[in-house]
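Re: Re: ligand-bound prediction request (bumping)

Still looking for help on this. To restate: I need the protein modeled with iron/sulfur cluster bound, output as structure tokens. Inputs repeated here so nobody has to scroll up.
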Amino acid sequence: MRHFNIPVFIPELACPFRCVYCNQYTITGSCKTPDVAEVENIIQKHLSTIDPAGSRVEVAFFGGSFTGLEGSLQNQYLEIVQPWLKMKVIDGIRISTRPDYISENILENLRKMGVRAIELGAQSLNQEVLDKSGRGHTIADVENAARMIKSMGFELGLQMMTGLPGDNEEKSLQTARKIVELKADTTRIYPTLVIRDTPLAELYIKGAYMPQTLEDASQLCARLYDVFAPAGVKILRMGLHPSDGFFNGETLLAGPFHPAFGELVLSKVWLKKISHLPETYSDEKIVIEVNPAEINSAIGHKAQNRLFLQKYYKKVKFRANPDIPRGEYYVDTH
Ligand code: SF4
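Reply:
Sorry for the wait, this slipped through. Here it is.
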């Protein structure tokens, strides 16, 4: 079944926190919350491009901390979706929010209004990293919110970041392991970028913060993938959605940004899988069969995995085979 998210960005206009990396208006490219008519238009526009048969369609209120909005405003947005939910054109609502903006009352209301999935910006499960990043919440906040969300039957998403101030590879791997322990259904991984006009940009300019290189960030995310994938935690995204300001330097000052960051990571995941092949097979020809959904990742970004194998074999071919389960491959040397 194909999954479609209809994204509705609700930027934080009055966020009382100051996470060091955040310039909330820049990230969403907008500094105004959408009104009812605008949200209806966004939904209608997306629905006109989606064939609902055999699809799961969700409206996703992203961009800020949804449950940090006044209760009446939350319901005003959620109400807009109700007619489509009743007609079963839309299957559910997902929201993103902060871990310390969750309570039983809030969750009761969200459930009543058709919210099915809640994604929390956990960012790190190391308290020192949380403190240095100015998150303003504790590990216990994440744990408590995650337990409440799971026990009330929602799909739980725990988003994490890499390369935060005070962070390192081991702490990021520990964060991923804790996300698995907390029984998250999904995750998103965002390497920290240095956005202009943020406290992190000041630290970077003073030389007090060094972002990850693209190579380090993609290598680490490949290791995080190996924690999440076997545990069944679905990775919904790796790397921020590109916006114009990232390309022309208007908003992005430094950091491991790449428009196809997820593809870079998946290339590395597959390179690790197939890099032992030269020792295993001595034939001149090699055919690697993978699930069609993964053939691009297996071949690698800019065919880097094929090029690697071509150092050892005269002929290297990748073939899509729907019978091969995702994550696995079959090697044919004839
Ligand atoms: S990332 Fe932090 S500062 Fe930015 S909107 Fe979210 S909670 Fe507020």
